[in-house]
Design a protein that fits this description.
The protein is an alpha/beta fold. It has 17 helices and 22 strands. It is globular.
């Protein structure tokens, strides 16, 4: 963190020092809301959750090295008292951001944000010290934590921005205003909350409207709702995609025998063959977005190609592929389940299995789709039928029942997960050596833990 005195932090938050807090003490570490993440000099934020209240850990946090805590009531520890801890976190992060002299990059989209962020981080780190959103810390809680991690010597601050409604990205941009804004696409994620893709696009466009005139908007040129955002800014616009009209595009896209994609990256007269380490042909678009954003940052082409070739998805639960000693390959793509990401994961299952290996799909019901829920579940069922797996296990209620009916009618073995049997055990019963199994579902279903247990199971 760019050091900030407790006095300056209190001024930024309109708070008051309490509990013997020394106004000259420096916050030299990041904001933290989990006492297990305390580092010397950090600031512990006492957020109150449904079952745990951070105020109860204030003394423990200071004993572990926090310089003070951010609280909305007196505690037995040095503190800054504020009416709203979450709001105060944003104000401290905004103060830190205002002193950052490097490049702030904002990234949003309905799907692929975290995978693109990981690929782009691989490029940026070759060019200079980079702070990037950890995991999916892209909301009002995680965002200020990420911003607070930036240091005076950092060159890039890469911020993933999520939204569940209008104004959400605006509020994040008020904390850290990007000079490069990248929009991946407008899809169906959370459409039940937004109401329509057009409203989703309005929310995503906030990241473009936040740009200064000297900034750059990096837009998916193949998505009409995204490319139209060029009219929302006076900044320079760069497009990426597969169409010839895109400034940065992919040609000769293919997939290796293990499901890892390759393509030719084209920018003007520059052409470079890229073989990705990550799985899933949908990650070609994410790689294009990362490359285009790096070009906007002025990074040389050789460095961009190197970063893409060695980049990995490190955030977990996203095309995480593990092959066990019995030859079973587990695809853990269970962090989330927008319709587009489910269709992409099924395509990856087919690519990784090829024509010779049995395919097993473990699928969770998709949530937050509003009036489009039935249509999307029908499309996924039809994709499963075209894929032709050896078996399907579904988790969910009415929409999953409808999917399973369609799948079984096509002659594919499919059933709903049993309530009385551990899911890992149920999956194991249908697996044979050499199979490829996809585990895909909404984060709330906890399927990521199932996939990890499945991948780690001893075999004999």
């Amino acid at each position: 963190m760019i050091p900030l005195s407790l006095a300056a932090a209190a001024l930024a938050t309109e708070g008051r020092l309490s509990g013997g807090a020394d106004p000259d003490s420096l916050i030299a570490g990041p904001l933290v809301f989990d006492s297990r993440d305390i580092t010397p000099g950090s600031m512990f934020c006492c957020l109150a959750g449904k079952s745990v209240d951070g105020h109860d850990f204030a003394v423990q946090a200071v004993a572990a090295g926090a310089v003070a805590v951010l609280a909305n009531r007196p505690v037995d520890a040095p503190a800054i008292l504020v009416p709203d801890v979450l709001g105060a976190m944003g104000r401290i992060a905004a103060r830190v951001s205002s002193e950052f002299a490097g490049t702030v990059i904002g990234l949003t989209g309905s799907a692929g944000k975290t995978s693109t962020k990981d690929l782009l981080t691989s490029i940026l780190e070759l060019d200079g010290p980079t702070v990037a959103t950890p995991r999916s810390f892209n909301n009002e809680i995680g965002f200020p934590v990420t911003v607070s991690r930036v240091e005076a010597g950092s060159r890039y601050l890469l911020l993933e921005m999520g939204a569940r409604g209008l104004g959400h990205i605006d509020s994040l941009c008020d904390i850290a205003r990007p000079t490069i804004s990248t929009v991946l696409g407008v899809g169906s994620a959370h459409i039940g909350e937004f109401g329509s893709r057009e409203v989703t696009a309005q929310a995503k466009a906030e990241i473009v409207r936040a740009l200064p005139a000297h900034g750059t908007a990096v837009l998916n040129g193949d998505d009409p709702l995204v490319s139209a955002m060029a009219g929302d800014t006076d900044a320079t616009v760069i497009t990426f995609g597969f169409g010839e009209h895109c400034d940065i595009r992919a040609e000769q896209v293919g997939v290796q025998h293990d499901g890892r994609p390759h393509f030719v990256l084209v920018h003007g007269k520059d052409r470079r063959r890229i073989e990705l380490r990550v799985h899933g042909r949908h990650n070609v678009l994410n790689a294009l977005a990362a490359a285009a954003t790096a070009i906007a940052a002025g990074i040389p082409a050789d460095r961009i190609a190197q970063g893409l070739r060695q980049g990995e998805i490190t955030s977990g639960g996203r095309m995480e592929v593990t092959t066990r000693s019995d030859g079973v390959t587990v695809i853990n793509d269970a962090f989330n389940a927008s319709p587009e990401s489910v269709l992409a994961a099924l395509a990856a299952l087919g690519d990784i299995a090829g024509a010779t290996r049995r395919k097993i799909a473990v699928l969770g019901e998709m949530a937050e789709l509003g009036d489009e829920a039935t249509s999307w579940h029908d499309q996924v069922a039809e994709q499963v039928v075209r894929l032709g797996p050896a078996g399907v296990i579904g988790i969910g209620n009415s929409h999953m029942d409808r999917m399973l009916t369609t799948i079984t009618a096509a002659g594919i073995t499919a059933s709903r997960a049993s309530d009385g049997v551990p899911l890992v055990e149920e999956i194991t019963r249908v697996l044979r050596p050499g199979d490829v199994v996809l585990v895909k579902g909404a984060n709330s279903l906890g399927l990521e833990a199932v996939a990890r247990e499945l991948a780690a199971m001893p075999t004999s």
